[in-house]
Amino acid sequence: MRVLSALLLAAVALCTVAVAEGHALGRLRAAGQLQAAVEAEAEAAGPAQPGKKDNGHMYPLSVTKAQPEQGPGVFLANTPGGFYMGRVMPGETFFAAYEYTSTTKSQYYWGHSRSACFWLGPPQQVKGMTGYTTVKHTEKVRTSSTCKASLAKLRNDATFAKDLNCPIHKGTFGARTTMNKASKLYWNLTWKSDYSGGALRDFAKDLPAGSQVFYRFTTRDGQAAVVQVPGVGWGFVPASDVIKVIGKFGYGDEKCHGK
């Protein structure tokens, strides 16, 4: 009987430890360390091209299929499915170092686009998106060393953004607003090496004054803003052309979580 009681007490102790570890994991995730785990998992999974030895190279991929989201190509983001940072247009080359498959079974690649290093892949709400790239044999491989430092840097939105409508994880969309003057929407920026902003490129659409858009953030240099245009998609506009709304998100003008 005493032995059985001792075994029961040991089992309870193990369960208590397991619960405590579960709470600790939750705190780590809440603290933003889950992203580091994603990156570690992607790196451990090896290079983006199956059968290739991980020798510090990035392999050239061509985007051959658009995501089920408005606008051409596939999104670039600071983290898998994170803030909109541009897009790789159909046929363009993306040099991929690592591949990561999310819990929603979507495929993401870490590597170098035309101007800087980002994650390539669909928005978080898109599930099961794979097979949107193909090996581009006409391009030479590149070294992955130029992207190493950017991986951790981009986790902090202060690296590239200011005046967010909602902090990360505090709102799921842009804030409804309008253009205060006639403007132009662009799909991309040619990002500066420090991620403070860049020159607008890849014209998408003319926007009349008063056009409804959803504002997300302004680049750190204050020159461009990320907006979503209904029926068109995400892109960039000159920051002075849009009325910023901070503290709200979505069609229902909801307050940011925790506000």
Given as residue ranges, the uncertain stretches (5+ residues, pLDDT < 50) are 1-32
Count up the domains: 2
**What's the helical proportion of residues?**
10-25%
Global shape:
globular
Which sheet architecture does the biggest sheet show?
8 strands, antiparallel
Strand content: 25-35%
Helix/strand structural class: alpha+beta
Mean pLDDT: 82
Q: What's the total number of strands?
A: 17
Order of helices and strands: HHEEEEEEEEHEEEEEEEEE
Radius of gyration: 21 Å
Question: What is the CA–CA distance across the termini?
Answer: 55 Å
Number of helical regions: 3
What does this entry show, briefly?
By secondary structure, this protein is an alpha+beta fold. It is built from 3 helices and 17 strands. Helix content is 20%, strand content 34%.
Overall description:
It is a single chain. This protein folds into two domains: 39-155, no CATH class; 161-255. The chain is globular and about 50 Å long. The chain contains three helices and 17 strands. Mean pLDDT is 82; it is low at 1-32. Strands 1, 2, 3, 4, 5, 6, 7 and 8 form an eight-stranded antiparallel β-sheet that branches. Strands 9, 10, 13, 14 and 15 form a five-stranded antiparallel β-sheet that branches. The protein has a two-stranded antiparallel sheet with strand order 11-12. It is α+β, with helices and mostly antiparallel strands.
